[in-house]
Every structure is written in structure tokens, then in C-alpha cells.
Amino acid sequence: MKNTNLRWTMFPGCYEYHLRCRYENPLFPAHRRQVNETELEEAQQKDVAENQQFKKQVYDLLPEMQTSLAGKQQTVNDLLEFHRRIYDLIERTGEIGGNLAEERTILTRLFVALDEDAKNSVAVNNEAVESLKKLREHLHGGVQMQVNNFLAQMSRKDSPVLSEDVVPRFLTEDIETIKSALPYLKQSGVLETLRKGVTEIIASTIVSDTTRDVLKLEDKLKLISSE
Q1: What is the distance between the alpha carbons of residues 217 and 215, in angstroms, rounded to a whole number?
Q2: What would the pLDDT profile of 166-223 be if each residue is shown by its tens digit?
């Protein structure tokens, strides 16, 4: 039964977004499709707290970097430490969700600027060159710093995505999110298991033509099976 008292926000964070994915979604188990007002309020409170804490971390980082790096010759370790912290924050935007576009833009610009400084600083230090190379391989990972919210939110330690939610949540994501997640799932060796789960859900669930169209299920199934 549809709950007309629910008040969704325009830019849901991690916890509210997962409730929206679950709500009256036939791909989820029946006992996971209902959402009440208390659940939604608690989710929104968590999201607001995370959002505020994250923004404080970002805007506190800027003066800290200015103080630390101004008026002295930066060492490779100085640059790499901020490099790591900035990328950790970029990845955190995927875990938190919501409207963090401005903060992600700031962090990305800082990362690119430090990346150039770090390359120049390590040019004559072979050990540092190797360290930066490994860091860049980890940070970029071949996706040029694109953060996949599904992967980030599924793997966070306090994830609202239960094991029984993973496959239906994946099928509920938009095409671009699914497409960018597939290489990681393949590399980690779980893609075949996910495909099996997708097949089982589609075979055992009654999904109306309208829902199939809204979720673009046919396009998603083709994409998942072709990877």
C-alpha cells in the first residue's frame, strides 16, 4: 500500500536514496519494499549529518593546505599526503551521495593541481617517482576519478545495502552507473555471481511492462550480459 505521507528530498543522500530504491520496487524482496515515515526521517537525519560533516572537512582542508604549503619548499611527502587525503574525500562523495557537486569540483581541481606539483617535485628522486606512480595507479584506476555511487555505498562499512538488496539495487541504478560499475565487478570476480542473481530475480519476479520501461530493464539486461 502506497504511503502518501512520505516526504522525499530533491537530492537524497546515501540512506534516503536506498529507501527510494526499495520503495514499492518489485525487484526487491516483498519485506523490503515498504518504507515508513520513521525510517525516512532517520535516514534523512543521517544524510544531513554526514553532508554537514563532509563539507566542514573540505572547507577546513583549504586553509590547512595554504598554511602547510605556503612559504616553504614542499617535500614529496607533503604533496603525497594531501594527494591521498583529497582523493579519499573525492571517494567519500560517492559514499555520502546527495548534492556535493561543488565540493567534488573543488577537490578535483585541487587534486589535479597537486598532481602536477608532485610530478615536478619527484623528477630527480627515483624512489619518489615510483611512489607517485603507484599512488596515481591506485587513485585513477583507469576511470579518471569518476566515483561510482553504487559501488561506494555498497562497500561502505555502515552500508544500508543489505546482501539481499545488492542485485535489485544494481538493477535499479541508471544505465551509466551500471556501465561504469561493470569493469570493477568483473575485475573483482563477482560479475558472474551478480549475473546469476539478475537471472534469478527476473525469472521469479512479476514486473509490469510499465515498470520495465521506467527502469529500462531490457537495456540494462543487455548491458550486463554483454560485458
Answers
A1: 5
A2: 999 999 999 999 999 999 999 999 999 999 999 999 999 999 999 999 999 999 999 9
Q: Percentage of the chain surpassing pLDDT 70?
A: 81
| Distant-in-sequence, close-in-space partners of 106: CB < 8 Å, separation ≥ 6 | 58, 62
Helices (H), 97-125: 101-121
Bridge partners of residue 171, in order along the sequence: none
With H, G, I as helix, E, B as strand and everything else as coil, classify residue 51.
Answer: helix
Q: How far apart are CA 90 and CA 81, in angstroms?
A: 14
Name the β-bridge partners of 13: 97
Write the CB contacts of 35 (distance below 8 Å, at least 6 apart in sequence).
Answer: 3, 6, 19, 22, 23
SS3 state at 97: strand
Mapped onto helix, strand or coil, the DSSP state of residue 13 is strand
Cα three-residue angle 212-24-184, rounded to 5 degrees = 65
Contact (Cβ atoms closer than 8 angstroms) between residue 13 and residue 50: yes
Residues 6+ apart with CB under 8 A from 211: 26, 217
Amino acid letter for position 51: N
